[in-house]
Design brief:
681 residues; alpha+beta; five-stranded antiparallel beta sheet; five-stranded mixed beta sheet
């Protein structure tokens, strides 16, 4: 008994060592992956041969190569010059496939005739798709500009002979060669210094986009500042030491796990090395195929949780899973030793029982019984089928006619919907395939109706947008033209000075409108850079109220701020958040009823904060919230105020790109704007 107890204790200790080593190995791998530690740096003696240098250089050089080689400028993109033949072909083929499955396609016509009809029918769609593709390229162009503008410590110059992208006044190759480290690409040559760069096995990765440029006119010069290189080399050395430490830990833990696992494989199922009998426990009763599925599911779940959800290794989650998985694997090892790996599977047992049932029927009856059953049973089946044939045929005909009626009802309903009757509903009783088909068609009809309604609303709003833009821009522009004409003929210096003052006001008004329009377009396109950080929202509101003291006194508005007693922080971009709040303040000053109260409430909702602005409108709010949020829409229908109508639209776009929500509610003359922002954890 003492020997058995000692052997059991030894197994438990070795098992725990195996779990500890396996956990350590997994932790090292996860940490290397999450911290982006490259083991390849251990064998590299020079920073310029490392993948770290390649990654840092590729982002800038690739962006410059795409800017001068492909995009060049926004005007170049929007003129369609960046659309390749492949892009145009892809657009046309996608739309042609759509045309082939539409009612406009005539199979009785030749391919050439159908192509001609397609070009006429889909001309506007082709143009729209091309414009959409150009807008996507323009967004990518501005993302590339943001990438190179954010570069620090590297001096660059790129030109195609017409367009230039640079962060310094240097534009000559000789000027860049004066730096200690540089990469120059022009005139069919690439000049790299120091020469260790050429030994970098990732050099082709760095220059892959440069190879596509025109060497006769395109040039890229990049030089690295000494302070920048010193910092990066120091970081690389530190990362190299970290990689060595991780590698040593990995080898140590892996060796420990392999040795302990081999020992467990040898002794599992036996009480001693001399014991030849395999001993099974409760866990070993689990079928082997179920065992394998559980191991795969637990392993996959652990990887998904660590990599996709938690993004770090949780010991309390990892250790129980590893214990269960290792126990299940050792159970499989027992069955391998016992030669029962296949026999102890659920599939094998089910097939075996079916086979035994069939075998039992044939083994337990005498031949006479089998012959009697066959002779009597077969004629009975034939006779029963013969006499029941008219009944079954009638039932089959009735069932078929019922299904045909249902099919015709669905067919007629589809015809009505196809002819434009989106209010038609196909009513089919029952729960069969036809009923589900009718429900699906009704759902499609509802979607089509909603889409048509949205399209009509969109067209109406577009028309109103064009009208409002034209009105708002034409008013100051007309005044400018009028006063310029007056200046041409006026001789009185006093009147001339008055005209110039008017021109100054109108030109500033026009600039304000265009600036707001540009900001609204930029915010809604998502191209505006966002730097999320911890923001004290209450302090920001108090500071804003303090800075606008003069405007508040002039408007006779009484601001009331309510907020939690403890500090509350949001995760947002300070500049963009203030721009959004500033727009709401501006909206309040323009449209709030003079000498009324303005309430600003800050509420803690758990995972997010709610900031609410409430004021009484000086104008009658007889438009819907959706229309109020549209661009160039104002609270006063006469459009006599000085606003651009873009304030709420800009605020909504800016809050959206900060992962927040912006809502507006109107209750009579009460106007309420609500900003939801995630809390800073």
């Amino acid at each position: 008994m003492k020997n058995i107890s000692h052997a059991l204790i030894t197994k438990v200790i070795v098992f725990l060592i195996a779990i500890a080593c396996l956990t350590g190995t997994a932790k090292v791998i996860i940490n290397m992956e999450l911290n982006e530690v490259h083991l390849s740096s251990i064998n590299q003696d020079n920073y310029f041969e490392s993948i770290a240098f390649a990654d840092e250089s590729y982002s800038l050089i690739s962006s410059l190569a795409q800017l001068i080689g492909t995009y060049k400028s926004e005007e170049n993109i929007l003129s369609g010059k960046t659309l390749t033949k492949e892009d145009i072909t892809q657009i046309e083929e996608d739309l042609y496939n759509e045309f082939q499955y539409s009612y406009k396609y005539n199979p009785n016509l030749s391919e050439v005739e159908n192509r001609h009809n397609y070009q006429e029918e889909y001309a506007d769609d082709i143009k729209s798709k091309k414009e959409e593709r150009m807008r996507e390229q323009a967004r990518l162009f501005y993302r590339l500009l943001s990438t190179i503008e954010a570069t620090e410590g590297i001096v660059y110059y790129a030109s195609d002979g017409e367009h230039v992208f640079s962060n310094s006044e240097l534009d000559k190759k000789e000027q860049f060669e004066s730096f200690g480290v540089y990469m120059l690409f022009d005139d069919y040559q690439q000049k790299l210094y120091p020469h260790e760069m050429k030994k970098n096995k990732y050099l082709d990765y760095i220059t892959q986009d440069v190879e596509k440029l025109n060497p006769q006119k395109d040039a890229i010069y990049v030089a690295y500042q000494e302070s920048y290189l010193e910092q990066k080399m120091q970081e690389w050395e530190q990362n190299k030491e970290v990689a060595k430490s991780y590698l040593n830990e990995f080898i140590l833990f892996l060796a420990g796990f392999i040795l302990s696992f081999i020992y467990l494989v040898i002794v599992i199922g036996r009480t001693s090395f001399k014991d030849k009998i395999i001993h099974f426990h409760v866990i070993d009763k689990l079928y082997n195929d179920v065992n394998i599925v559980l191991v795969a599911c637990l392993s996959g779940m652990w990887v998904a949780m660590i990599v996709e959800v938690i993004r770090e290794m949780n010991i309390l989650l990892t250790v129980p899973i590893f214990i269960i998985v290792l126990l299940l694997i050792l159970s499989l090892v027992k069955h391998v030793k016992n030669r029962s790996l296949l026999q102890h599977t659920l599939i094998y047992q089910i097939l075996k029982k079916i086979f035994m049932m069939i075998k039992h029927v044939f083994d337990n009856g005498s031949m006479a019984v089998k012959i009697v059953l066959l002779v009597i049973g077969y004629p009975v089946v034939v006779a029963a089928t013969f006499f029941m044939f008219p009944i079954t045929l009638g039932l089959a005909a009735w069932f078929a006619m019922k299904k045909v009626k249902l099919f015709n009802r669905i067919k007629e309903g589809v015809e009505q919907i196809k002819n434009g009757d989106f209010h038609h509903r196909i009513e089919v009783d029952g729960k069969g395939e036809f009923s589900r088909l009718a429900e699906n068609i009704n759902s499609i009809t509802d979607g089509l109706k909603k889409s048509v309604d949205n399209e009509i609303k969109s067209e109406r709003l577009k028309t109103e947008l064009i009208t409002n833009v034209s009105h708002d821009i034409r008013t100051p522009l007309t005044s400018i033209i009028t006063y310029v004409d007056l200046l041409k003929i006026e001789k009185d210096p006093q009147l001339i000075a008055e005209y110039i003052d008017v021109l100054d006001q109108k030109s500033k008004r026009l600039k304000h409108l265009t600036d707001d329009l540009f900001e609204a377009a930029k915010a809604s396109s998502g191209s505006m850079p966002v730097q999320l950080e911890r923001i004290d929202i209450v302090s920001l509101l108090k500071q804003g109220i303090g800075e606008m003291g003069e405007k508040i006194e002039a408007s006779s508005l009484n601001f009331k701020l309510a907020h939690p007693t403890e500090k509350v922080y949001v995760k947002a971009d300070g500049k963009l958040l203030w721009r959004s709040i500033e727009n709401l303040f501006s909206n309040i000053f323009k449209y709030a009823l003079p000498a009324s109260r303005v309430y600003i409430d800050v509420e803690d909702l758990g995972n997010e904060l709610l900031v609410t602005f409430k004021n009484i409108s000086a104008y009658e709010l007889n438009i819907s919230v959706d229309e109020l949020m549209e661009r160039f829409t104002r609270g006063d229908e006469s459009r006599s105020s000085q606003g651009s109508g873009l304030g709420l639209s800009i605020a909504e776009s800016l809050i959206h790109i900060q992962h927040g929500k912006f809502l507006v509610q109107v209750d009579g003359d009460l106007f309420k704007a609500m900003i939801y922002l995630p809390k800073f954890e």
